[in-house]
Write a structure and sequence with these properties.
With 488 residues, the protein is mainly β. The chain has four domains: 98 residues, Immunoglobulins (Immunoglobulin-like, Sandwich); 98 residues, Immunoglobulin-like, CATH 2.60.40; 98 residues, Immunoglobulin-like (Sandwich), CATH 2.60.40; 99 residues, Immunoglobulin-like. Helices cover 5% and strands 50% of the residues. It has a five-stranded mixed sheet, with no helix packed on it. The longest helix is centred in the N-terminal third of the chain and has 23 residues. It starts with a helix and ends in a 27-residue tail after the last strand.
């Protein structure tokens, strides 16, 4: 009996003790006081956000830079940062809503103020591996008044994601405050951030009849997000800007080759020409010969032509082609590209500004070669055809011939000639002993002293099939009457 009472007492205590504990803690209800409270896990990341300028006029822009660190204060690279507006009273825009932190933990975007007055706030947010977020914000005060620019500019990239060495076209469009196209307006281009070590084919150019300006962006060797800013300044000295971001990936997928491209002149009138020279090197900077290089237009606002669309680098790593400006005003960009044995491409570009005006020649000339591929020592006929601006044949016109590039060591049978009744002038080209691409230029000058030119490229291969001998032929008398003779 005593043992039974002991068991009942133990059962009673087992049931009552938890109830008493709950009562002491405020009862057994289902309210919050019944729950065990723990401190939420905070993000392992921290972030700060700064603006290069905290006060802007409508249309102005500034760089926003977020810096990501870990709990010990060390920079965190490769971290995605999201950006958004907390408030947007001015009607502002961001060049991108995401950016990736670089080796210094920094991620940048471009903020462009809207047309209305107000205070905008921008928030940058990072999320750690546990899904926990950290945020920071910055405010920018915008004044919209008569001090704002009367111009507007938009900037777009054909591609916003590239590998190192790749390139893309950037196009700025200029309008006035009512949205009408503005031609003849100078546009400047600059980097907001340049984490990849990128280059631009030009830092300024003039808007064409459609309000557009084109330049070429070539990605650098490093990973990162680059921002490019296009700016216009009105007659009151007020500036409007726009920007675009391009993300660059640097990896083993990059080309093992490098190429540089230069123009002998970057400012021409319609019909004029200049030499373009590409130089090919490997990743260590050593010259690469025998490498195929292709040439193409990034933009061709003038209606320009190239003497060749490809060529092979010579013993100095160089390839030359001839650019002839078109009849229209505008900025043309030309791209030289090389592809390595892994199929990876590297590119470079150059821009040429073309002015088309009454200074253009009233004449036109075309130049053709019977063959554009020869072995050393072989020859081919070059024929220039002269017309006026309406396309009518012009005879009795002097035409001069010269080399734009002469990598093979070639010769011409004459450096000038007079157009015949069909408007044609013929000379003979003889390839030199070295491999390379030669360009030959034919030029005519009108009665006002204005010139027009055309060019053709000939690729020369120096091989064992080429003769080691040369022959020349001369006449004792080069002028005869009918029936007379001379010794050759």
């Amino acid at each position: 009996m005593l043992n039974k009472l002991r068991r009942l007492a133990l059962q009673f205590l087992t049931i009552i003790a938890p109830v008493a504990l709950l009562t002491a803690c405020g009862g057994g209800g289902s309210g919050p006081s019944d729950l065990v409270s723990t401190t939420p896990t905070q993000s392992t990341l921290s972030i700060t956000l700064a603006a290069a300028a905290a006060s802007l006029n409508g249309g102005d822009s500034t760089t926003l830079t977020a810096t990501v660190t870990d709990s010990s204060g060390k920079a965190v690279a490769g971290q995605s940062v999201a950006l958004d507006f907390g408030s947007n009273l001015s009607g502002a825009t961001l060049s991108s809503t995401t950016s990736v932190s670089d080796s210094d933990g920094k991620a940048s975007v471009r903020y462009t103020a809207g047309a209305s007055a107000g205070s905008d706030s921008i928030i940058a947010t990072v999320t750690d591996g546990n899904g926990k977020t950290a945020s920071a914000s910055v405010s920018i005060t915008v004044s919209a008044s008569s001090s704002g620019s009367t111009l507007r500019v938009a900037l777009a990239a054909a591609s916003t994601s590239l590998n190192s060495g790749e390139n893309t076209a950037l196009t700025a469009t200029v309008t006035d405050s009512s949205g009408a196209i503005v031609s003849g307006q100078n546009v400047t281009f600059a980097f907001g951030t340049n984490l990849s070590g990128a280059t631009l084919s030009a830092t300024s150019a003039t808007s064409d009849s459609t309000g557009k300006v084109g330049v070429r962006y070539v990605a650098g060797a490093n990973s990162g997000t680059d921002s490019i800013i296009a700016s216009v300044t009105d007659s009151n000295g007020k500036t409007a800007s726009a920007s675009v971001n391009i993300t660059v990936s640097a990896s083993s997928s990059g080309s093992t080759l490098r190429v540089a491209l230069a123009a002998a002149s970057t400012s021409l009138k319609g019909g004029e020409n200049t030499a373009l020279t590409a130089t090919v090197t490997d990743s260590s900077g050593s010259i690469v010969s025998g490498q195929s290089v292709t040439f193409a237009f990034g933009t061709n606002l003038s209606g320009a032509t190239l003497s060749a669309t490809d060529g092979t680098s010579d013993s100095t790593g160089k390839v030359g082609v001839r650019y002839t400006a078109g009849a229209s005003a505008g900025s043309d960009s030309i791209i030289a590209s090389v592809t390595d044995s892994n199929g990876k491409t590297a590119s470079a570009s150059v821009s040429i500004a073309v002015s088309a005006s009454s200074s253009a020649s009233t004449l036109r000339v075309a130049l053709a070669a019977a063959s554009t591929s020869l072995n050393g020592g072989e020859d081919t006929a070059l024929t220039a055809t002269v017309t006026d601006s309406s396309g009518a044949i012009v005879f009795g016109q002097n035409v001069t011939f010269a080399f734009g590039t002469n990598l093979s060591g070639a010769t011409l049978s004459a450096t000038s000639g007079i157009s015949d009744s069909t408007g044609k002038v013929g000379v003979r080209y003889t390839a030199g002993a070295s491999s390379g691409t030669d360009s030959i230029i034919a030029t005519v000058t009108d009665a006002t002293g204005k010139t027009a030119s055309a060019s053709v490229a000939i690729t020369v291969t120096a091989t064992a099939t080429a003769s080691t001998l040369r022959v020349t032929l001369t006449a004792a008398d080069s002028s005869l009457n009918g029936g007379e003779n001379t010794v050759l």
